Amino acid sequence: MDEQDVLAGAAFDTLAVRAGTRRTQEGEHSEAIFATSSYVFANAAEAAARFAGEQPGNVYSRYTNPTVRMFEERIAALEGGEDACATASGMAAILATCMAHLRAGDHVVCSRDVFGTTVNLFGKVLARFGVETTFVPLTDLAAWEAALRPNTRLLFLESPSNPLCEVADLAAVAALARRQGALFVVDNCFCTPALQRPLALGADLVVHSATKYLDGQGRCLGGVVVGPRALLEEVRVFLRTAGPSLSPFNAWVFLKGLETLRLRMEAHSANALALARWLTEQPEVERVHYAGLPDHPGHELAARQQRAFGGVLSFEVRGGRAEAWRVIDQTRLLSLTANLGDAKTTIVHPATTTHGRLTEEERRAAGIGQNLIRIAVGLEDVADICLDLRRALDAL
Ligand SMILES: Cc1ncc(COP(=O)(O)O)c(C=O)c1O
Asked: How far is the CA of 290 from the centre of ligand 1 (A)?
């Protein structure tokens, strides 16, 4: 019996450290990075059999790579999915899912509150190929239902949302999708499987930007699609054909990232909760958006469906863009960058960066004002994060 055989039924933390590991004859303890684009065959017959798919084994790293495979098996185990397909970025994971499961004439219902590039992918890119998308407010179940059409094939959302931390009822949207015979796809980037497992709540597929918390230290781009093998078959065909496959080095970084995922997500969440509470007490702060606060509209749902509230929050300063920019510019410890899911705390002004391409009206509809600041809380001591923000607020 090898290490993988004893993992059936193992707990999350054990899977995070051990699932997917396959050692070579060298006996390396840490997983190897297979930095190779192609593989050697023993003879011409073996080459022919591998190319024909009659014999299992590697052919070319756009198709399969042992390090990438280890990452796929580990994240599949953590999400509670049958299998996973790794991709070159989070956007490639979403694109591959759509290319595998949509065709011209299909209709998609997507949360209005997803990552801006995802909005563009559905609203602009896929629209050119005859796939129409209706955008609905994340938490308005009646709007999801009203948007359904006979040709609706896919429902897509992120929960909690960025940057207002709104929370979708995943089981309820899953029930709608099931009734419709459509696929329900959840971008689980903000929670990761350490805090939320959408497949267990009825989602058909989970996608990730591994670039965020799966890495955890802001080093690599990558993505992954997780779910039943039958739904991943076409995803894999698209990836091998179109080419956005994950590099083995990046896969190795994510494998290492997963080993500490739960510990990190709990620490991010604890820091974010402490910071959110502190922000509510600052006179220059008008409003704090974090589902961990009891007065947040998504608090009870998040408490039910997530293990903790995650590392991202946003707040509104009294004033407008000038005041928000002043606070951001006066911070010294926090990093001014749009990325999140890093050990280092990041700060950004959504209205002029991540959501800058929306019209003012779209931004208003999404609740993203000029006075809003987003913080992706890292792993520094929260007292130092508060001190940096207090200094910045003093400049107002
Ligand atoms: C929720 C979410 N999904 C998807 C993406 C896209 O991921 P990537 O940048 O790895 O392509 C991002 C990136 O910020 C994101 O925040």
From this structure: 20
244 and 297 housed in the same domain: no
**328 and 267 inside one domain:** yes
Give me ligand 1 centre to Cα 225, in Å. Answer: 13
For 211-245, what is each residue's pLDDT tens digit? 999 999 999 999 999 999 999 999 999 999 999 99
Q: What is the pLDDT of residues 270-316, one digit of tens each?
A: 999 999 999 999 999 999 999 999 999 999 999 999 999 999 999 99
Q: What does the DSSP 8-state code read for residue 332?
A: S
The verdict on 42 and 146 lying in the same domain is yes
Same domain, 180 and 283: no
Work out which ligand 1 atom sits closest to the CA atom of 189. Answer: 1
Report if pTM > 0.90: yes
CA–centroid distance, 91 to ligand 1, in Å, is 6
DSSP 90-149: HHHHHHHHHHHH--TT-EEEEETTS-HHHHHIIIIIGGGGT-EEEEE-TT-HHHHHHH--
What is residue 1's predicted lDDT score, i.e. its pLDDT?
Answer: 65
Domain housing 312: 261-394
314 Cβ closer than 6 Å to some ligand 1 atom = no
Do 173 and 29 lie in one domain? The reply is: yes
Average pLDDT over the chain, rounded to an integer: 97
DSSP, res 58: -
CATH number of the domain residue 388 falls in: 3.90.1150.10
Atom of ligand 1 nearest to the CA of 190: 1
Whole-number Å distance between alpha carbons of 135 and 311: 26
Same domain, 231 and 278: no
Ligand 1 centroid distance, CA of 51 (Å): 34
